[in-house]
Design goal:
Elements (H helix, E strand, L loop, with lengths): L1 E7 L3 H4 L1 H6 L4 H9 L4 E7 L9 H5 L3 E5 L9 H13 L2 E5 L6 H7 L6 E12 L13 E11 L9 E8 L4 E10 L2 E6 L12 H14 L4 E2 L9 E2 L1
Parallel strand pairs: 1-2, 1-3, 3-4, 4-9
Antiparallel strand pairs: 5-6, 5-7, 7-8, 8-9, 10-11
Bound molecules: zinc ion.
Length: 235
């Protein structure tokens, strides 16, 4: 059993009607819904809960933490960030999505600004550039997202251990859309898609990438994954 906590700052969906229309129950519940199965148990947490829902007890019972944030990075308490960092060093996996590139936890783990170029809606084609990587299993050679915010290079991150996906935008920009790191005992995956105004987390291939990443980032020795579309991975 893999224990996942999906953290979402949960500001856009509360404050902006047009975002609520895309994710009526919040981005976190959309992600929870497609991940949950017999082998994966998912809880959610958000900024407005006590200690942002990331108490020591919750983190001690989390194998993989998924992070989505955008407007309220500065409102996340340093104490909680330090607690999450310690759990990653101990072995908890971290998956950072989209605008989470500027979250305190991602910048803390990577030690750089994580700045990038961005522009509103564009069409994106994502290419698998490391097909042998566990996160790329079952993912087509390339797939398209009709409407996504453009994120472009230069992306100020340390040289990744693996670049699994490269994004190309119709405007011509390219981006390292899926990159991996290890910090202490913990595995970290950053995945670029997921701007809040488009239903990107309903895209079946995007969902598959996140599922694969959960299995890859899970610290425990071995999981038999019986859910459909899951690769069985020995670790
Ligand atoms: Zn965005």
């Amino acid at each position: 059993m893999i224990r996942v906590t999906v953290w979402n700052e949960f500001v856009h969906e509360r404050e902006h009607e047009e975002i609520r229309a895309v994710y009526p129950d919040g981005i976190h519940n959309c992600i929870k819904e497609f991940l949950e199965c017999d082998d994966i148990v998912v809880r959610t947490a958000n900024l407005f809960e006590f200690e942002h829902g990331l108490t020591q007890e919750v983190l001690d019972n989390t194998d993989v933490l998924i992070w989505w944030g955008h407007m309220a990075h500065h409102l996340v308490s340093d104490e909680v960030v330090a607690r999450v960092q310690k759990r990653i060093w101990e072995g908890m996996g971290l998956i950072v999505l989209h605008s989470g590139h500027h979250s305190k936890i991602f910048r803390t783990m990577l030690g750089t600004t994580c700045n990038l170029k961005w522009r509103d809606d564009d069409r994106e084609r994502i290419w698998v550039v490391k097909p042998s990587h566990p996160i790329a299993q079952g993912i087509p050679e390339h797939f398209e997202i009709e409407k996504e915010e453009m994120y472009g290079e230069p992306f100020d991150i340390p040289t990744p251990e693996d670049v699994v996906f490269m994004g190309w935008f119709a405007g011509g920009e390219v981006f390292r859309s899926g990159v991996t790191y290890t910090r202490g005992n913990g595995r970290i995956f950053y995945f670029q898609p997921g701007h809040e105004s488009n239903p990107v987390y309903r895209h079946p291939v995007v969902q598959q990438v996140i599922r694969n990443a959960v299995v890859w980032a899970c610290p425990t020795k071995k999981y038999e994954i019986s859910c459909p579309n899951f690769p069985s991975l020995e670790k």
